[in-house]
Amino acid sequence: MIAVSGALPKALAELNACSHDEFVAALANIFEHSPWIAEQAARSRPFAGIAELFAAMKAAVDRAPAELRMALINAHPDLASKTQRAAGLTAESNAEQNSVGLDRLSDAEYEAFERVNTAYRSKFNFPYIVCVRRHSKDSILRDFARRLPNDLATETQTSIDEICRIAALRLDQSVIGGDRLAVSGRLSTHVLDTNSGKPAAGVAIELVELAELGVSRVVARTTTNADGRTDAPLIGGRPVPIGRYELTFGVGEYFAARGVPLADPPFLDRITLRFAVSEPEGHLHVPLLVTPWSYATYRGS
Amino acid sequence: MIAVSGALPKALAELNACSHDEFVAALANIFEHSPWIAEQAARSRPFAGIAELFAAMKAAVDRAPAELRMALINAHPDLASKTQRAAGLTAESNAEQNSVGLDRLSDAEYEAFERVNTAYRSKFNFPYIVCVRRHSKDSILRDFARRLPNDLATETQTSIDEICRIAALRLDQSVIGGDRLAVSGRLSTHVLDTNSGKPAAGVAIELVELAELGVSRVVARTTTNADGRTDAPLIGGRPVPIGRYELTFGVGEYFAARGVPLADPPFLDRITLRFAVSEPEGHLHVPLLVTPWSYATYRGS
Amino acid sequence: MIAVSGALPKALAELNACSHDEFVAALANIFEHSPWIAEQAARSRPFAGIAELFAAMKAAVDRAPAELRMALINAHPDLASKTQRAAGLTAESNAEQNSVGLDRLSDAEYEAFERVNTAYRSKFNFPYIVCVRRHSKDSILRDFARRLPNDLATETQTSIDEICRIAALRLDQSVIGGDRLAVSGRLSTHVLDTNSGKPAAGVAIELVELAELGVSRVVARTTTNADGRTDAPLIGGRPVPIGRYELTFGVGEYFAARGVPLADPPFLDRITLRFAVSEPEGHLHVPLLVTPWSYATYRGS
Amino acid sequence: MIAVSGALPKALAELNACSHDEFVAALANIFEHSPWIAEQAARSRPFAGIAELFAAMKAAVDRAPAELRMALINAHPDLASKTQRAAGLTAESNAEQNSVGLDRLSDAEYEAFERVNTAYRSKFNFPYIVCVRRHSKDSILRDFARRLPNDLATETQTSIDEICRIAALRLDQSVIGGDRLAVSGRLSTHVLDTNSGKPAAGVAIELVELAELGVSRVVARTTTNADGRTDAPLIGGRPVPIGRYELTFGVGEYFAARGVPLADPPFLDRITLRFAVSEPEGHLHVPLLVTPWSYATYRGS
Fold it and tell me: How does it assemble (chains A, B, C, D) (predicted)?
């Protein structure tokens, strides 16, 4: 569970039962600095589930006049802007930007993001908005490159779509009770020792999110259990960020510990699988079938 | 063919027929600064093949008194010593040390080699000798760590053995005609596209020798031919240095060029296989079987 | 759920609450023709679970005097005996023998079983007993060949062990409520299309139990679902009989239906995997990774 | 080398130098009962190679008037006709038909071929001709089903094409010296033990040509050598007949002999790969990568 802000998640039943003002206060920042959306949604209470609540908020955005929609867009901060970070973001924006590492950019990355923001803002006159929890730093920069050639109407709608994705993730983390929104994905692995025909237990695993310009980040570090799997998914309960990854398996140590005869140095030691994620809400399974002399992987499900 | 020195390879027939002095001059540095070995071998002419010639030289070493064998050991330079390089090595030693990158060490590597040499020389009172063409920088440092605890008798014999390996490689490169000594290995690959059931042609391949302390070196950069193989082995006609390697295949570009539907970004783009070489004179085949969603490799032959 | 006999499964609560005679009547044939075991177990009522009930029955067997244990052994019918089948077996024995196909033997098989029974009975003077639900016809014949050289004491104990296995399976099917005994295994598969990187849906699958002497039997015939799996395990809710199997996948039709270019005739059409089961209570997963030009399988879990 | 008939292969040089009559006598039956083709080709002597000789014979066919071409077609026997076999075929026709097993048909197959011949002859008024060395019995029956709906012009040309294929194979076997015609294919395998990372030596291999209606035929029975390959290709020096095959590998015995721990019975014992051949002149490599718990195969080259 991602702690979106300091506030505890609210129960849906409570939101259905509380006063109008309490409801608005609780959901004021689901859409950045835009409590009017919560206000309109409040009138449709009670909600049978979180999906219904989200639909009511999205409907408020969809039927808002163009000026109000543009105000919603402009209520968002620039990505990775040091000035704006210093001046203060909402707790939600801050947590989101940190989740993708925008608070720990290399100089080259920082400059790349500055270029993105400036180029985008000077063309469209509003900030570049993307649901950062669905992305790695690299894929944000690629997304920007794809969107910059668009016309104003397309980018206005794309911005609203991304804002709704941000809101759906915030809502999913802020309200509990009943259903969940389909905003999370899962990345998992397992290791099968085809030398012994058994799941490989005790294999050290490391998942790194690769970055072209900056420092790659270790996302997960774990060890396979008796079933050759990891106790928790490598990434779960949140979108799997679009991006490139490297998954490393310490098979040399594993086979050595089992007394399997190996070459010196062992033919296979730390096996790395490099792959990309393109569907943040999908279930991606990347297993390893391994002997001391061979291995295979595939996109499973 | 490795150019060991400026001299052209001699034909065995010529060596059999020339004067004693010419014979000795031609083979004076097969054993470093030790023409007495060529002198003794000269008396056994003619030789039916290079293996017989090498056996005669090795016999001269084996029957030499202990002092002469120790002088042979002491005729060798320290590995990677800047002072000795400045003072001048034989052309053969220079080429050999350069082949493994000892002339382009990082500071950390340079210090590691200095430590090796000093520790070894202070214990045994002669230089640490290893046949560098059979090694990567990393494996030399590991070899040293394994040998340092040995006693004097063991290391004296090990040094002679390594000197004979060096000599065999020099001889194999210096003399032509008839047989070759079994001093070369081979590292090869091929790429099979199991999506189309055909060899994958036009796949960009890069082979890197990994270094723990210093800079990894690109050993080969090539492209697969119509048969999914490389026109020449990745390493051939010489020992395959003991060490760790990374082989990279540009499969994303390959499938994109063939119009195969891919995710965005593609699930597999640049596939890297990491493996170690432990038998420099062996034939190691590391193929890739690949679809856009899966791959496998194994140690073939 | 296997219908062991015509009787409906009893609830454990009911067995705990009913009269002594009703209890004994319900469980009289859990051990073949030996109601004295149910009678002794009845005194330990109530039972917290089925495992506890089984333990009480097994304890009655374990503490019985040798003569009574031998009577228990002799209460069992010969395997596949036409005479005894004509004379009438318990409903339980009949269902068990039919489950492994002992009512549909080829002439060669019938003769083989006759030889087994006669040889065994003339050596030990009691019938050969084996828990047939854990076996195929072939593995029963192999089990006999392994056991025939044993001495009397060993075979007496082995017979009691097999009788307890038979009883555990009968009890697991006859009583419901609370726990299950660990007497069932599972055989499953799934098909991954590594050409498209997705589960292969709609692949026809057939599982055949192979027989050396007689007719092989189709055990399951099904089609993969959207997840590339079968809706139910190929074998589940019962032991997976020890034996050899052939699993066939109609991949030619699958790829043709998807419009994938194939050779004529297709390189791969009906893929068969042959494997053996050795642990009837284990979970055995035998997947297929397939393109039109390659496939792989492994023992998974 | 296939012995097409009792005659020894002739050297091309000899054919270039001998008398016109000797030349015609030597090549009279390259085209069935049609020495006029050899007669015409004789005038173009000398030939630089076998391909040039074949081109001259084919040119004679191509420029022949329609009646002569039809006579050539009608000079061929019906396939698998017992009456015609009794009356006597050319040695060449006899050897060819026997090679595909047409002299050892099951009753069901014999009836199927009778139906083919009768239906074909009644529609086209000439015998169904196919180059049988490129086919299995099953693929001949499929070829017939594909060709029967054709019109007369198409089938006349197809018959001539098949006659030329038959002639090319006869010529390739009858004349030696210089080039070979591209009429042969190759089917090969190798076994890699990915448990030990080495070629699997001593694995028993059997290749069976499958037949739907009749008895499947063992085509090759061999054992892998030290390189995990077979000393000779499974099929080589001739076309690889279009058809379906089963390749069986005795891996259970192989691993047991090496002392590898196995289940009882072993999970994998006799592995069978079923595949089809569609290109008789191609090189088809079907390897097996195997551990006691997994295996993979692919169409290699």
Answer: Homotetramer.
